C-alpha cells in the first residue's frame, strides 16, 4: 500500500458496529490505544474488514481512514 499520509498506525480491528449507512470501526494500535473511525458499510465490505484483522488507521488532517495490505 502506498499513500501520501504520513500518520499510518498499524493495528488490529477491535470492533465493527454497523449502522444503517456507516459503521464505527475501532482499531487497537497497542499499549491500550484505540483509534475510532466512521466509514461507510460499503467500505467495510470492500476492505473485507473483520474483527481481529490487521488494518491501518491513516490520519490526514481531521480525517481517519482505514486501510489494509493488498
Could you please describe the fold and organization of this structure?
This protein has 70 residues and is mostly beta strands. The chain has a single domain (7-67), classed as OB fold (Dihydrolipoamide Acetyltransferase, E2P), CATH 2.40.50. 10% of the residues lie in helices and 59% in strands. It contains one helix and five strands. The chain has one helix at 41-47; strands spanning 7-18, 22-30, 33-40, 54-60, 63-67. Strands 3-2-1-4-5 form a five-stranded antiparallel beta sheet. A hairpin with a 2-residue loop joins strand 2 (22-30) and strand 3 (33-40). The longest helix has 7 residues, at 41-47. The chain starts with 6 loop residues before the first strand and ends with a strand. 13% of the residues are buried. The mean pLDDT is 92.
What's this entry about, in short?
With 70 residues, the chain is mainly beta.
In round numbers, the mean pLDDT is 92
3D shape: globular
Low-confidence stretches: none
Sheet with most strands: 5 strands, antiparallel
* N-to-C CA distance: 7 Å
Order of helices and strands: EEEHEE
Q: Percent helix among the residues?
A: 10-25%
How do the strands line up in the largest sheet?
3-2-1-4-5
How many H/I helices? 1
Structural class: mainly beta
Q: What is the CATH superfamily label?
A: RNA polymerase II/Efflux pump adaptor protein, barrel-sandwich hybrid domain
Please give the domain count.
Answer: 1
Strand content: over 45%
* Rg, alpha carbons: 11 Å
The CATH class turns out to be Mainly Beta
CATH-derived topology = OB fold (Dihydrolipoamide Acetyltransferase, E2P)
Number of strands: 5
Just name the CATH architecture. Answer: Beta Barrel
Amino acid at each position: 500500500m502506498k499513500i501520501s499520509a504520513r500518520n499510518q498506525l498499524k493495528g488490529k480491528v477491535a470492533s465493527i458496529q454497523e449502522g444503517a449507512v456507516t459503521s464505527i470501526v475501532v482499531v487497537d494500535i497497542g499499549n491500550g490505544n484505540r483509534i475510532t473511525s466512521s466509514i461507510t458499510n460499503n467500505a467495510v465490505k470492500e476492505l473485507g474488514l473483520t474483527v481481529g484483522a490487521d488494518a491501518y488507521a491513516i490520519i490526514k488532517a481531521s480525517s481517519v481512514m482505514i486501510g489494509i495490505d493488498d
